Amino acid sequence: MSGLAAFFAMRKWRAHLILFVLGLLAIFGFAPFHAWGVTLLSLSLFFACLLVNNKQAGVSVFWASLCYALGYFIANTYWIGSAFIERGPEFVPLMPPMVLGLAMSMASLWALAGKMFQKYGGSG
Asked: Domains of the chain: which residue ranges?
């Protein structure tokens, strides 16, 4: 097993945590940071993870995709909470579940795409 394959072997929760952090780092390509190289590196490592784990038995690319996308969307949709704060203090308790729910619903689409990639996609 190569070094990259060993790094992304999806047997432990640490790999999913690394993917979550990679998703968080992907936002640095957007304003106000404009560090697009970080986003490209993050997406490249995520796709390498999908390719390495694509055909391994017992490995779910679904969860890997979900963890990456959840980090990505949580970091990118935090600003929606400002609308709840602006409406008044009675709406602030609604903010965390709504922002997390939105991020989770968008991440589930990436997870389904990861599952389809594993079933029908690349050969790795």
From this structure: 12-120
92: Cβ contacts below 8 Å, ≥ 6 apart: 84, 85
User: What's the whole-number mean pLDDT along residues 4-9?
Assistant: 62
Handedness of CA 35, 99, 110, 67 (dihedral sign): positive
* Residue that the structure tokens 């796709």 belong to: 47
> Whole-angstrom Cα distance, residue 21 to residue 68?
7
Q: What is the pLDDT of the chain when averaged over all its residues? A: 87
Q: For residue 71, what are its two tokens? A: 């980090």
Q: What is the pLDDT of residues 83-100, one digit of tens each?
A: 999 999 999 999 999 999
Rounded to whole angstroms, the Cα distance separating 69 from 37 reads 18
